[in-house]
Amino acid sequence: xxxxxxxxxxxxxxxxxxxxxxxxxxxxxxxxxxxxxxxxxxxxxxxxxxxxxxxxxxxxxxxxxxxxxxxxxxxxxxxxxxxxxxxxxxxxxxxxxxxxxxxxxxxxxxxxxxxxxxxxxxxxxxxxxxxxxxxxxxxxxxxxxxxxxxxxxxxxxxxxxxxxxxxxxxxxxxxxxxxxxxxxxxxxxxxxxxxxxxxxxxxxxxxxxxxxxxxxxxxxxxxxxxxxxxxxxxxxxxxxxxxxxxxxxxxxxxxxxxxxxxxxxxxxxxxxxxxxxxxxxxxxxxxxxxxxxxxxxxxxxxxxxxxxxxxxxxxxxxxxxxxxxxxxxxxxxxxxxxxxxxxxxxxxxxxxxxxxxxxxxxxxxxxxxxxxxxxxxxxxxxxxxxxxxxxxxxxxxxxxxxxxxxxxxxxxxxxxxxxxxxxxxxxxxxxxxxxxxxxxxxxxxxxxxxxxxxxxxxxxxxxxxxxxxxxxxxxxxxxxxx
Length: 482
Known about the structure:
Elements: H1 2-34, E1 50-56, H2 63-70, E2 80-86, H3 92-102, E3 108-113, H4 120-130, E4 136-139, E5 145-146, H5 150-154, E6 162-171, H6 178-200, E7 212-215, H7 216-221, H8 232-242, E8 246-257, H9 263-290, H10 295-306, H11 310-320, H12 327-330, H13 332-360, H14 369-384, H15 386-398, H16 424-450, H17 456-473
Parallel strand pairs: 1-2, 1-4, 2-3, 6-8
Antiparallel strand pairs: 4-7, 5-8, 6-7
């Protein structure tokens, strides 16, 4: 009975990973066959009012760089207003106030402070909209540094029924350490291949919370900003597209931002995104499937919003693998086919996926060992997040809590040394990740001992990934510089 259950669980994990891997390969195929349709929009001047919103909460180390670049955005004089939506409780507010007081430029700058943090970022954006009537709204998080022509390049695309245009994220600190290099590769894959693949085949994709421009009418007709999920940007994106608005994505225009340079920050960021995406799936999918949109759009939207279930499959496979290695001898004929399929579609295909995104960005040299290490590291760290992300999905399914937790950002200066004490919950997740890394290492050694060579690639990825993430995230009362 136990053997049968383990066999079924192993097969389930392989099948789930195969489906997700095949879907990722499909997006890559869509990107490659249609990439010639990606054209950089011309830089033109639009005589229209535009509102630039910068939501801020305790970002003393990065806010000045953001304000310096946002204040130099090119737009016709007198038609651009910059709103600094400041919910901070530290000296970030003083830095903003000083900048506003000394600013001498053609644009209007408003420093808006709320008396509460109701709705967190979504609440701040909604309140800012109430203070201005501009028909176009651009949004930048506090660590973003858009180039001066950003608005002139994107805004012309907002014609007719185009409700939002999203640009690609670039990375200021991608070369800080091995973790930022791996994270940059993961984000590049998302912004170059996934977003483009969905957009080019006419499916829904999402605003990423920053580095994009909205039509005010689109936001209003979609029901406005809501904060019943952590990922308010994803929620609004689907509501807007369900309401009949179209979106445009271009990876040929980018805005620079900062990647978390410590594992704790990356885990917190990815946890928030996974939980919020699951909350949005629970909220949006019933409406999506009742809509009149095509099956292709419904299917793609479903896979998009439920893709984090792949972490459950990864976690399940890593747990049962040491006990199911014997299957390769007793059922070697068809089990080997399953193993090969999941390895090619999930792991090898993922490496190709990331390699193609790096090639598109002219960051790929097949002779560079460092480039190969960065791509493989992206795969390994993704696997290592399986425990935290699996818990995030579970939390998103059963919990409507939408408390926002900021991602640590350090900037290139230390104005404030922020400190935090990880919760018992996060510490337990980190400990479980580390224990699973030890467990996978024992499984790796056992596979080598019995000569189960087909299991070794899986076990090696699990072992390194869990140990890397577990050790990095286990920060008992450690000072976190953010």
